[in-house]
Amino acid sequence: AARVTPKPLMQGSQTAIVVGPPGEEIYTDKYGRVKVQFHWDRVGKRDENSSCWIRVSHPWAGKGWGSVSIPRIGQEVIVDFLEGDPDRPIITGRVYNAECMPPYGLPAGKVVSGLKTNSTKGGGGYNEMSMDDTKGKEKITIHAQYDMGTTVEHDDTQTIHNNRTIGVDGTHTETIKKDTTIKITEGKYDHDVVANTAKYHVKGALAENYDDVQKTTVTKEIEIKSNTAHIYLTAAKEIKLVTGESMVQMLSDGTIKIHGVNIEIIGTKEVKMGVGAQNVTCNTQKVITSGAGITTTAIGVHELSGALIKIN
């Protein structure tokens, strides 16, 4: 009778090196399988022909969801065999070695745990999520080599019990569909545009309330303009306009004071000043003074001149 050689039984796990075609850093198929070359293989050429496709174990593997971390060419992996069958290899883990060292120098970095990738092709960059468990200095670090996107389908709540600093080297844009509230319970609020202009546009009404003093200092001109309505300035006690030696002062008791070295009141058609029935009216033709009593007094010469003077 013919002699039948029994199928060998793999007695344990082995390690191997992930391989692929020249010039590739990641070589896989749609199932996430990779190819390897075992250390005992003296025939393989460390390329895509060194083994069959081998499945890779992941912490999660769902239907269109789970975790993915494809072993890359050059990494050392642990290969097991289902039920000891040499034709059913499966990668169950990965290990560091002298060629592939951990991302955090050991033993000095033994308190750091995390994930750190390597930009492909060519390296030179990385994405990272790491946790430093140094007592009293615990820290989580997230690094995106290029872009970072975050989507929250419902609420996002952040609580920071100390300081927060945000630095943006480029443009900062925020689009908010509904309300925005910023409440400062202690401390102050500084808004500083160092080297350019600031622009505020409010399509609806704007209301500002200050419980203490408001001070505005402008190095150059100030322009306040109402395109279609009025401008109102209201003060409970006093409004004062001052420039140099000139001043206009309005008091809540109805007193208005005008002070200046020279005061000019000019109207293109008419200027009228009056108290009750006592009035002085100036127009382009004449000056009219009327009242219950009119007194003119001069310490020196009192002169009346005109083409015709009528005294009635």
Briefly say what this structure is:
It contains no helices and 14 strands. It has about 300 residues and is an all-beta fold.
* Mean model confidence by pLDDT: 94
* CATH architecture type of the domain at 7-100: Beta Barrel
Shape: rod-shaped
Radius of gyration: 44 Å
> How many angstroms does the end-to-end distance come to?
161 Å
Q: In order across it, which strands form the biggest sheet?
A: 2-1-4-5-3
Number of strands: 14
CATH superfamily assignment of the domain at 7-100? Gp5 N-terminal domain
Q: Mind describing the biggest β-sheet? A: 5 strands, mixed
* Structure annotation, total helices: 0
Element order: H for helix, E for strand:
EEEEEEEEEEEEEE
Quaternary status: single chain
Helix content: under 10%
Uncertain runs with pLDDT below 50, 5 residues or more? none
Q: Any idea of the CATH topology of the domain at 7-100?
A: OB fold (Dihydrolipoamide Acetyltransferase, E2P)
Structural class: mainly beta
What is the CATH class designation of the domain at 7-100?
Mainly Beta
Strand percent estimate: 15-25%
Structure report:
0% of the residues lie in helices and 23% in strands. By secondary structure, the protein is an all-beta fold. A 5-stranded mixed β-sheet has the order 2-1-4-5-3, with no helix packed on it. The protein has a 3-stranded antiparallel β-sheet with strand order 6-7-8, with no helix packed on it. Strands 9-10-11 form a 3-stranded antiparallel β-sheet, with no helix packed on it. Among the domains are: 7-100, Gp5 N-terminal domain (OB fold (Dihydrolipoamide Acetyltransferase, E2P), Beta Barrel); 102-142, no CATH class.
